[in-house]
Design brief:
The complex is a heterodimer of chains A (about 130) and B (about 130).
Chain A lengths: L16 H32 L1 H11 L4 H26 L6 H28 L3
Chain B lengths: L5 H5 L8 H28 L5 H9 L1 H29 L3 H30 L5
Classes of the chains: A mainly alpha (about 130), B mainly alpha (about 130).
């Protein structure tokens, strides 16, 4: 392959909020792709019947898994909100530098809040 | 100097006419996934439990089964398109790139088909 400049090239950019929000959107997208496979396995287990589902959920409810779920919930929250931000941009709105900076901060705070709300409803309720 | 007209020279050499399709479907599926994924998460969180009886009763409702099938298909499509862009951007060997794209497409279709089959099986009363 001829050695031409490659883009995107992660090593050469100054680390800024634009880069951070963009790469996080991709990264959380990859995590959600894995989560999608997990969802399919769970649906298949439900389709297999009670025993298979109980086995699948026993494997999936071991204690260290909670940390993975928290990661998955954050990936969902972030990717959902970042995706909405992208859809708004596609209409031509919010592209000014100051607006983009504000929405990046809003995205960061709101995705953490949404993660905590989902985790709280999932685990914080009375058993 | 070629005698072919400029349009003739570029058609078929690269993404002429199809370049915007990938982008458009990515947006279309993302727009659909906003309500679908929120519906899914809210539904799962509001189920009284995740035991087989509760889940299969929920999945047996017509609207639930329909929305689950749509959610799985849309998510599979969106995920396949998203991973494709990442592979095209970061994997530079032609062989590895093609292999990963084929593998990703096959896995997405297999997972989505299996999940849809499972949902329909429960919805039509086959899940014991």
């Amino acid at each position: 392959m001829p050695s031409r400049p490659l883009s995107p090239h992660l090593g050469v950019y100054k680390f800024k909020y634009t880069l951070t929000t963009s790469i996080l959107n991709r990264f959380t997208g990859v995590i959600l792709s894995v989560g999608f496979l997990a969802l399919c396995f769970w649906l298949m287990a439900v389709g297999e019947g009670a025993a298979a589902q109980a086995r699948a959920q026993r494997i999936c409810s071991a204690l260290p898994m909670k940390l993975l779920y928290l990661g998955l919930i954050f990936a969902f929250s972030y990717h959902l909100l970042a995706g909405i931000r992208h859809l708004v941009w596609d209409t031509g709105v919010g592209l000014e530098r100051s607006q983009s900076r504000s929405s990046a901060w809003l995205l960061g705070v709101a995705s953490v809040v949404l993660t905590l709300v989902i985790a709280w409803v999932l685990w914080g309720r009375a058993p | 100097m070629s005698l072919a007209n400029p349009l003739r020279q570029v058609l078929g050499a690269g993404p002429s006419r199809s370049g915007v399709h990938h982008w458009w479907v990515q947006r279309l599926t993302s727009l659909a996934l906003v309500p679908l994924s929120v519906w899914f998460v809210v539904s799962i969180l509001s189920l009284p439990g995740l035991d087989h009886g509760t889940v299969s009763t929920w999945m047996g409702q017509a609207w639930t089964a329909l929305l689950l099938v749509l959610f799985v298909l849309t998510a599979a499509w969106h995920s396949k398109l998203g991973l494709q862009v990442i592979v095209e951007d970061y994997v530079h060997g032609a062989g590895a790139k093609t292999l990963l794209l084929v593998l990703s497409a096959f896995i997405h279709v297999l997972a989505a088909a299996a999940a849809v089959f499972a949902v329909l099986k429960v919805a039509f009363g086959g899940g014991a």
